[in-house]
Amino acid sequence: MRNLVCIFILILLASCTKREATLSPEEAARRDSTALRVAVMPTWSCLPLYYAESTGLLTDSDTNIRLLRYTAQMDIDTTLARGHAEVGYSDLIRLLRLQREARLQALLSIDEPVALVAVKGRRVSKVHQLKEKTVAMSRLCITDFWCDRMLEPADDEAETFYRPQVHNVRLRTDMLRTGLIDAAILPEPYATWMDMTGNKVLRRTTDKDPQLAILAVRREAATTTHTEQTMRLLEVYRRAAQQIADAIVRYFQEDWQQRLAEGVRQEKQKYLWPNMTRAINNL
């Protein structure tokens, strides 16, 4: 049953689309010009926005909010810098680097757990066994930050690790799944998916680690043109995150009660989903 949770989240992130009534070209142009465009990635921290869109939370009022989907954080950076979106998924490291190109500020600190995952079949069960092997990641962002720290105990010589840049998170996951790389830094739910398919999670972030992921907003959007929509976005995120958290709690409570009834007394939860309530507490 735990596999079903992972599959459901992956399907929702990968294929969630917004169905709208057909609009006239004039009405469509007007709505596009007034929309708050939000650039998102198919990862755990953006899940509340995908969920809000699929369940109608984004459309249950007159607030005009549109999701723009990307699979690489670098593409979101470009979108924000060029003004093609007012809000987007980012992190504090990227935020500092983008100040030269766009006036951005942090709108919300969000939880983006990541893990160092080694491919199955390569006899890698410890971090030091990754020496002279490839660890796919994305540079100049929190993926790079956590890669440095997760490899730190074995990083006597930086050149002993090969770190190809694979910015597309789906491509990075697929390369690990097919054995084209030895390991990768993956966000959720991809890390748990790889864990379920027999790959080895060597390290993962916890609730005690700093939250570096954010929703960034262009300053003019936050203070003038889209102030009301920005506040509405925060409320929608909070409501969606709370509903997801409640659903996960109900699922594991029911599943554990069933396992106890069947006499199963092993580990309560093998696949540890991130704590969505941590994101809610930031609002």
Task: Please explain how this structure is put together.
With 283 residues, this protein is of the alpha/beta class. It folds into two domains: 2-111 and 211-280, D-Maltodextrin-Binding Protein, domain 2 (3-Layer(aba) Sandwich), CATH 3.40.190; 114-204, D-Maltodextrin-Binding Protein, domain 2 (3-Layer(aba) Sandwich), CATH 3.40.190.10. α3 crosses α10 (227-261). The strands form two sheets. It has a five-stranded mixed beta sheet, sandwiched between helices. The protein has a four-stranded mixed beta sheet with strand order 6-7-5-8, with helices on both faces. The chain has eleven helices and nine strands. The protein starts with a helix and ends with a helix.
Set down the secondary structure blueprint.
Elements: H1 2-15, H2 25-34, E1 36-40, H3 47-55, E2 65-69, H4 73-81, E3 87-91, H5 92-98, E4 104-110, E5 114-118, E6 135-136, H6 142-151, H7 169-177, E7 183-187, H8 190-196, E8 200-204, E9 213-218, H9 219-225, H10 227-261, H11 276-280
Parallel strand pairs: 1-2, 1-3, 6-7
Antiparallel strand pairs: 3-9, 4-9, 5-7, 5-8
Helix pairs in contact: 1-8, 3-10
